[in-house]
């Protein structure tokens, strides 16, 4: 396997940050993992990279970037109601979504147009518009970089939560996912819990939306408020939406009529980080080449020459404002390296 040296990572991350990696190996065949790992010195730092759409590089990386490019989408089993689809971890996520739409397999159409790879989807249990990966997850396979062995994980072992999994915690950077298997429905299964999706269906007067119409609606909503990383560097939401106590929620609601919150099973309320950031006056604000996006305050953008450190500094100032004004500590969603 070819290992490149002193390589710029600018085209490998959607923020467009120009840092260098000492080594970069592109892994397109799972059978080459053992060869790659055994060629590395034990203390070589490793970072597993998919599409780089949830990663902020803040400095040169003095180790090896393992860029996962394992391809392949295959139906491995089915019954009357469900189909099991195994995808290589390096497959582009939206390519997999398009495959399922073409075949009328329901379950990930609401996750249309999320950038990145299939292998990264379980890491933060990607979610959007009323759906989360965990709802269709069946199992995954990967390589334990500490024990040097292949292992499978079924749903119960993954500890999925809101933008969380075991792979973002205990197994962070220690387990290289090589394939993911999803269980999708062969029967119509509309997910219309997200109000703007419902509103759009009503506006278009569609009585029985098809799977491709749902996907199109989601893509249109996304395009209307999220920047296209091919045109403007970003990594989607920079922070998670915070969950606050009922007491704190009610006291904020008393002060701010327009605050929206969603109660969870522990009686806490998930509120919008974008709203908090906007209320602190950051929406659309720019310092040098870093800004909070004018249509979605939670998305930080790179107008061209921002460094990872510039973006991090900007984000820390946002965090400080939100803490001072609301006594809420925002938690980063993205992976900072
Ligand atoms: P990377 O940034 O390459 O990696 C992310 C993390 O996963 C890193 O910790 C990395 O080490 C790890 N990783 C990657 N591949 C593997 C692997 N094979 N094995 C083990 N670890 C691995 N996310 C959402 O959840 N919902 C959204 O609606 C959403 N919208 C977005 C919109 C935009 C415009 C952008 C730019 C991003 C958005 N995101 C969203 C965030 C991002 O697209 C997802 O988190 C995506 O899953 C990241 O995929 P990636 O391959 O680019 O990950
Ligand atoms: N809002 C504001 N100002 C803003 C942005 C949002 O007031 O600048 C308020 C509005 O009330 C709006 C509400 O927040 O109605 C929700 O906004 P939006 O629908 O854009 O969703 P979000 O909560 O900001 C989350 C995810 C997104 C996902 C969307 C759709 C997180 C951290 N982000 O954003 O995921 O696409 O919902 O489901 O949970 C990502 O993770 O990278 C990402 C983009």
TL;DR of this structure?
The chain has helices spanning 33-38, 93-102, 195-203, 211-225, 246-255, 273-279, 308-326; strands at residues 3-8, 20-27, 45-49, 55-56, 61-68, 73-78, 82-88, 127-128, 131-132, 137-144, 149-154, 175-185, 233-237, 243-244, 261-263, 269-271, 286-287, 290-292, 299-302, 335-336.
How are the elements arranged and paired?
Blueprint: E1 3-8, E2 20-27, H1 33-38, E3 45-49, E4 55-56, E5 61-68, E6 73-78, E7 82-88, H2 93-102, E8 127-128, E9 131-132, E10 137-144, E11 149-154, E12 175-185, H3 195-203, H4 211-225, E13 233-237, E14 243-244, H5 246-255, E15 261-263, E16 269-271, H6 273-279, E17 286-287, E18 290-292, E19 299-302, H7 308-326, E20 335-336
Parallel strand pairs: 2-5, 3-5, 4-20
Antiparallel strand pairs: 1-2, 6-7, 7-12, 8-9, 10-11, 10-12, 13-19, 14-16, 15-16, 17-18, 18-19
Describe the 3D structure.
The protein has about 325 residues and is of the alpha+beta class. The chain folds into three domains: about 5-70, Uridine Diphospho-n-acetylenolpyruvylglucosamine Reductase, domain 2; about 75-185, Uridine Diphospho-n-acetylenolpyruvylglucosamine Reductase, domain 3 (2-Layer Sandwich), CATH 3.30.465; about 235-335, Uridine Diphospho-n-acetylenolpyruvylglucosamine Reductase, domain 1 (Alpha-Beta Complex), CATH 3.90.78. About 25% of the residues lie in helices and about 30% in strands. A hairpin with a 4-residue loop joins strand 10 (about 135-145) and strand 11 (about 150-155). Helix 3 (about 195-205) crosses helix 4. The longest helix is centred in the last third of the chain and has 19 residues, at about 310-325. The protein is globular and about 60 Å long. Uridine-diphosphate-2(N-acetylglucosaminyl) butyric acid (EPU) binds near residues 129 and 297.
């Amino acid at each position: 396997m070819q290992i490149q040296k002193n390589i710029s990572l600018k085209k490998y991350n959607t923020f467009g940050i120009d840092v260098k990696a000492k080594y970069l190996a592109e892994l397109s065949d799972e059978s080459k993992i053992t060869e790659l790992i055994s060629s590395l010195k034990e203390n070589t730092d490793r970072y597993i990279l998919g599409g780089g759409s949830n990663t902020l590089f803040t400095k040169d990386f003095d180790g090896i970037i393992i860029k996962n490019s394992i391809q392949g989408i295959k139906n491995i089993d089915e019954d009357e109601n469900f189909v099991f689809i195994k995808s290589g971890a390096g497959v582009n996520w939206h390519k997999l979504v398009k495959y399922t739409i073409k075949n009328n397999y329901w379950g990930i159409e609401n996750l249309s147009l999320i950038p990145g790879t299939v292998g990264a989807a379980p890491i933060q249990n990607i979610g959007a518009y009323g759906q989360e990966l965990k709802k269709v997850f069946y199992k995954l396979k990967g390589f334990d970089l500490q024990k040097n062995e292949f292992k499978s994980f079924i749903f119960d072992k993954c500890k999925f939560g809101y933008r969380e999994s075991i792979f973002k915690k205990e197994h962070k950077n220690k387990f290289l996912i090589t394939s993911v298997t999803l269980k999708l429905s062969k029967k119509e299964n509309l997910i219309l819990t997200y109000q703007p999706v419902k509103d759009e269906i009503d506006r278009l007067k569609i009585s029985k939306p098809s799977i491709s119409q749902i996907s199109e609606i989601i893509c249109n909503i996304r395009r209307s408020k999220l920047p296209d990383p091919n045109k403007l560097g970003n990594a989607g939401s920079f922070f998670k939406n915070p969950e606050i106590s009922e007491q704190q929620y009610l006291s904020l609601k008393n002060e701010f009529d327009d605050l929206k919150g969603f109660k969870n099973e522990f009686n806490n309320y998930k509120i919008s980080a974008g709203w908090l950031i906007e209320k602190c006056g950051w929406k659309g604000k720019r310092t040098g080449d870093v800004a909070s996006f004018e249509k979605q305050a939670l998305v930080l953008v790179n107008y061209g020459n921002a460094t990872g450190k510039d973006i991090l500094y900007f984000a820390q100032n946002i965090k400080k404002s939100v803490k001072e004004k609301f006594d809420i500590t925002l938690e980063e969603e993205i992976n900072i390296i």
